[in-house]
Amino acid sequence: MPMLLEDVYAGAPTVKSGRHITTVNEFTDQSPALRPEVLAEATRRLIELGDFEAGKILVEEDKGAILGSAVSLAVGLPLAVARWYTYDLSGHGISVPVDSEYFTGTLYINGVEPGDRVTIVDDTISTGGTLIALIEAVRKAGARVEEVLVAVEKPENGGRERIAECFGIAVRSVIRIAVDPGTGRVNVLG
Ligand SMILES: O=P(O)(O)OC[C@H]1O[C@H](OP(=O)(O)OP(=O)(O)O)[C@H](O)[C@@H]1O
Ligand SMILES: Nc1ncnc2[nH]cnc12
């Protein structure tokens, strides 16, 4: 079976924004437009990593929500989305600070209730900042994180280690990549 996700990253251009180099690719940026077979493959491979004994999936907008929607449909679990803005409904929503590779700000989660068991899904883990914020938000909501599943991991930025240290959770990832700061090329790691 062809491994489309690896092909997407191996051929992806990169851009420099400030101190960071990021890939611009079909899977996370829809540039070029995301082929359904790429999303289907990423979804299938991510689902193979998970147990899905939780009752709900939580993602962060907007990149994670595309993958999260496909996973939600495939496994038949409801989808909660953390957003970068609040709905300002009194008594609703949990806010947490987030400090990620590219952004610092506040995330707001909705739709996670006390007692929920949650599978967190994201497209990418780099520093782990986004996932740390999501895990903290789930706990703040009185719910429990059962598993954390990501499609793409940038191991050099230590996200997995931070999450293991802070929460004792082992992140599961489909593929691992490194962006070479010299050439700007993406290496898909073995
Ligand atoms: O491990 P981290 O350092 O937190 O990086 C990973 C996060 O970065 C990307 O989101 P981005 O910041 O591009 O935001 P978006 O999904 O809201 O577009 C990606 O979707 C992850 O959520
Ligand atoms: N799409 C992406 N490519 C490379 N690094 C990232 N870090 C967060 N998102 C990323």
From TrEMBL:
Database matches in InterPro entries: PRTase-like (IPR029057), PRTase_dom (IPR000836), Pur/Pyrimidine_PRTase (IPR050118)
GO molecular function, one term: adenine phosphoribosyltransferase activity
Spans traversing the lipid bilayer: none
Keyword Glycosyltransferase: yes
Keyword terms, alphabetized: Glycosyltransferase, Purine salvage, Transferase
Statement: the UniProt record of this protein carries the keyword Glycosyltransferase: yes
Top-level taxon in the UniProt lineage: Bacteria
Residue ranges occupied by any Phosphoribosyltransferase domain in the UniProt entry: 63-168
The protein's Enzyme Commission number: 2.4.2.7
PANTHER family noted in UniProt: HYPOXANTHINE/GUANINE PHOSPHORIBOSYLTRANSFERASE, XANTHINE PHOSPHORIBOSYLTRANSFERASE
Protein name: Adenine phosphoribosyltransferase
Organism encoding this protein: Streptomyces rimosus subsp. rimosus
